[in-house]
Amino acid sequence: MSGTLRTCYRGWNIAVRCLGKQSLPGKPARAGTHAATAHAYLQDSATRNEWIDPRPQSVVSGSRNFDTTACCSAAVLAEIKILIDALRR
Fold first, then answer.
1. What is the value of pTM for the model shown?
2. Sheet-wide strand order for 33-42
3. Distance between CA atoms of 89 and 86, rounded to whole angstroms?
4. Burial 24-49 (b: 16+ CB within 10 A, else e)
5. Which stretches of 4-68 are DSSP H helices?
6. pLDDT tens, position by position, for the chain (89 residues)?
């Protein structure tokens, strides 16, 4: 199962992609294991000098256990929002 979440936060466009790992045939199920990547880029209308580093930013979760893809996406979205807040002058 996979999903993509798109949103805006403080003048940044954010895309979060979360993938649930599929177990191989004949192998035990790996329910709850997900990996996610969040990419954020500053909107054209935003003021670049308000940010310490206005370049595109990424956060990668690696493999972690979540109940659902939505929970995985929400966690990584929260992490990239923390990064964006830290970049504000």
1. 0.83
2. 2-9, 12-20, 33-42, 57-65
3. 8
4. eeeeeeeeebbbbbbbbebeeeeeee
5. none
6. 567 899 999 999 999 998 887 655 555 555 578 889 999 999 999 999 999 999 999 999 888 888 888 888 999 999 999 999 999 99
